[in-house]
Amino acid sequence: MYSCCKKRWTLSRWLVGHLRLNNHQENEIDDLEMQVMRYKPEGIDELVRNTKFTKKELQIMYRGFKQECPTGLVNEDAFKEIYAQFFPQGDSSAYAHYVFNVFDADHNGTISFEEFVIGLSVLSRGSLNEKLMWAFKLYDINGDGYITKEEMLDIVKAIYDMMGKYADPPISENAPGDHVERVFQKMDKNRDGVVTIDEFMETCKNDENITKSMSVFDTIL
């Protein structure tokens, strides 16, 4: 994951340089930089308490973060460009949007260093429960505490779109819907049409096939 992050900040720098070819966009970027110039991350000691990274690891990550992203913030467009680089064979924009929303904990349209390392800590060093809770947030698109079949289908379709038409083995047009029907039926224990966090956690922990299907996060996050 961290090697992916280094590419991310390099890409962000490229995007800024590319946008500056347009004077109007250049002014917008300069305005943004002025707005976030006062932005400072919370204390390193607090981040040590809130993540599974050491103080030295956080200091190294922050230096790299600031070097490649001087504003200290990453917007959704830059985030989508990252995924486009890693999945050129498909359309990753929808999936990147959903992942961005989970990282952007305060929903202000940008990912700060704190949000980045807190999310990264869960995905790279979190317990199974922590990772499953993160995954639940991803599928719970509207954040109401429940996963509907429509929300699950939106995420699964986004994953299939990202993997592309040239996936091996080839993906059929009905594959996302068929996959969601099978998984949702297993998760919705009381047949009320929604999946709760408890149902989600229990099913993922006890069903080996679903657990394996969840491992897709190891390669696309």
From TrEMBL:
SUPFAM superfamilies named in the record: EF-hand
Q: What residues does the EF-hand domain cover?
A: 91-126, 127-162, 175-210
Statement: the UniProt record of this protein carries the keyword Lipoprotein: yes
Recorded GO MF terms: calcium ion binding
The residues forming the signal peptide are none
Pfam families linked? EF-hand_1, EF-hand_7
Keyword Calcium among UniProt keywords: yes
Which keywords describe this protein according to UniProt?
Answer: Calcium, Lipoprotein, Metal-binding, Myristate, Repeat
Database matches in CDD domains = EFh (cd00051)
Protein family per UniProt: Belongs to the recoverin family.
Q: What is this protein called?
A: Kv channel-interacting protein 4-like isoform X4
What taxonomic classification does the UniProt entry list for its organism? Answer: Eukaryota, Metazoa, Chordata, Cephalochordata, Leptocardii
